[in-house]
């Protein structure tokens, strides 16, 4: 669904329920910094983007500075000319987006940073399948860590995830119950790979594209 920043977006934002997670895809330029994120959050909060103040948590996850606004949880990721923003109430979502490009050292990176069983699963795939599977796994790990409020310094090998094309799921997470986690690959176009994660019950994921004029 394409929409513009106006009544359509405001109406969608007002309809965010406790059983939903909203995901927005938009074009992005690095010079915009957090401008598009603040503009969208302003729609959900019913305030101008100019009054939105963000602060970084202990491990760098952005959050709303005003405690009165923190019932609204969000996360975002950008890569190349695209960005994804996710918004929810009652759970802290994590999202990650990566642009597809040749990665000649993907398996070496996996061997260095991933769980050994993930490395074995990647190695068993056809070479033509490995790049997308590696990125799906990478974005999935990033999404889980961001939902935890952590970064990759936590250790990418401290969680074991299913490797595509298997259904996305958390198999093991150091210090936590993997059954409590939801993990979903997201449609992000032919040139990107993306994943969404949160800790809590299953929710309906609603996905829109924000028009360039927004």
The biggest beta sheet reads: 5 strands, mixed
- Content-based structural category: alpha+beta
| CATH structural fold name | Ribosomal Protein L22, Chain A
Spell out the helices and strands N to C. Answer: EHEHEEEEEHHHEEEEE
Q: Radius of gyration, Cα only, in angstroms?
A: 17 Å
CA(first)-CA(last) distance:
14 Å
Number of helices: 5
The share of residues in extended strands comes to 25-35%
Number of domains: 1
Q: Record the strand order, biggest sheet.
A: 1-12-2-6-5
Low-confidence parts: none
Shape assignment = globular
What is the CATH superfamily classification? 4'-phosphopantetheinyl transferase domain
Q: Which class in CATH terms?
A: Alpha Beta
Mean pLDDT: 91
Helix content: 25-40%
What is the correct CATH architecture?
Answer: Alpha-Beta Complex
Please report the total strand number as a whole number. 12
């Amino acid at each position: 669904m394409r929409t513009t920043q106006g009544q359509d977006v405001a109406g969608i934002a007002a309809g965010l329920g406790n059983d939903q997670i909203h995901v927005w895809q938009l074009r992005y330029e690095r010079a915009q910094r957090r401008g598009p994120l603040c503009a969208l959050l302003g729609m959900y909060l019913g305030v101008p983007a100019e009054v939105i103040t963000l602060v970084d948590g202990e491990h760098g996850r952005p959050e709303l500075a005003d405690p009165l606004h923190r019932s609204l949880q969000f996360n975002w990721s950008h890569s190349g000319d695209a960005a994804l923003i996710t918004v929810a109430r009652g759970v802290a979502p994590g999202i990650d987006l990566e642009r597809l490009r040749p990665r000649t050292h993907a398996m070496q990176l996996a061997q260095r940073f991933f769980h050994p069983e993930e490395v074995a699963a990647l190695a068993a795939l056809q070479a033509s399948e490995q790049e997308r599977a590696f990125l799906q796994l990478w974005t999935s790990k990033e999404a889980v860590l961001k939902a935890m409020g952590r970064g990759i310094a936590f250790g990418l090998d401290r969680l074991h995830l299913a490797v595509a094309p298997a259904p996305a799921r958390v198999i093991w997470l150091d210090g936590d119950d993997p059954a409590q986690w939801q993990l979903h690959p997201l449609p992000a176009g032919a040139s990107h790979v993306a994943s969404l994660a949160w800790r809590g019950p299953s929710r309906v994921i609603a996905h829109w594209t924000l028009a360039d004029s927004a």
